[in-house]
Here is the input.
Amino acid sequence: MVKVALTFEGDADDVIVAMRQLAVGDATAASSVGNKTETSVATTAAEVSDDAQSDEPSAVPEGRWTIEHVRAFWGFLADDAREIYQRVAQSAGYVLSRQALLEEMHLTVRQLSGRLSSQGHAVRRIRRVHNVSLPHPMSFDSQADEYRMLPDVADAIVRLNL
Here is the structure.
């Protein structure tokens, strides 16, 4: 269920015109009335309809990785991506150069990227299942040419012996 509260200010005739145009779904025409408040109401109405079409909740709190999150994330990851995560989690400072990773796993850059593609899907699933927005557990620093894992995630991978 969606609840929307609107406040209209301005000349009565302009407010009635804006309300009628919003009621029939003409948000752009409602903004043409010229009143600043009505313009923001029309924009808000358009944004609400966009949010209603989105797959993900609009107000998901940000959080930190917990053991439960890592365990669920691990279940969503593809086996190939898990192997990469294990190597980075066990490296010094949770940082591993891309070249070292490529050599250890006997992969090309394209193969490595393909194996890591499941991490984005897994992060989105965590967001939906746990209703929390978490930062990506591992990122690539292009200037240093290395993968960096969040300490919370790396610690949980090592502790859970994943």
